[in-house]
Amino acid sequence: MRFRRITGGEPCRAYAMDSRNGVTLLSVIGGHAIAAVQSVLGRIDEVSSTLSQRRQTVRLIETGKSIPMHTPDHVMINAVLQSGAPLSLQLRGGLPRGTRLMWEIIGTEGDLRITAANDQVPVINIGPLRVEGGRKGEEGYRELEVPQSYYFGREIAITARNVVGIYKKMADELRHGVPITPNFDHAVVIHKVVDAIERADQTAGRVRVG
After folding, report:
1. What is the CATH number of the domain that holds 193?
2. Which of 50, 53, 71, 201 would give a disulfide with 19, using CB separation of 3.0 to 4.6 Å?
3. How far apart are CA 196 and CA 77, in angstroms?
4. pLDDT tens-place string over residues 49-78
5. Of 99, 105, 92, which is closest to residue 37 (Cα–Cα)?
6. Domain annotation covers residue 136
């Protein structure tokens, strides 16, 4: 992966509009989504994908200037988990209307649905999430209460409580010697999935992870 220096006083996030800088919709937003999926449902085994770019320019909020865009802004993934369960994942760039984050888990004994409660933060790792469930034989969903222990005393500070939670788990690791928090090996696995997704798009085929 090559990195390119941003010059000319461009706003700090302009670099994300060029895939050569290593920061993309797939690697960042997609990486967090993949981490959540694998944490809850197990590792992804093989993938097929389509990466597309529908917008050619993007306007910088700070200056009003439009700059060229050189990165996919729409990602579609069909995958199979190591358990054999199928996975369908779609990432959209821009500012889509409606529900910006929705994750449905369809199970044999019931279903779960996770959505972003706040449209301004539609990212699974820092967004305030609404969790709903429905058992087999029931109609519709009902909201499930998230235990207060998951808030770590930071009910309002959404991003901060995730950081607090990680530090608390790291402290427990040091006290008890039991691995709890994600480490470098977890990051490597996620990047292998991202690489497989990119290769599947380039070859128009199905790619095994690893």
Report:
1. 3.30.360.10
2. 71
3. 11
4. 999 999 999 888 888 889 999 999 999 999
5. 105
6. yes
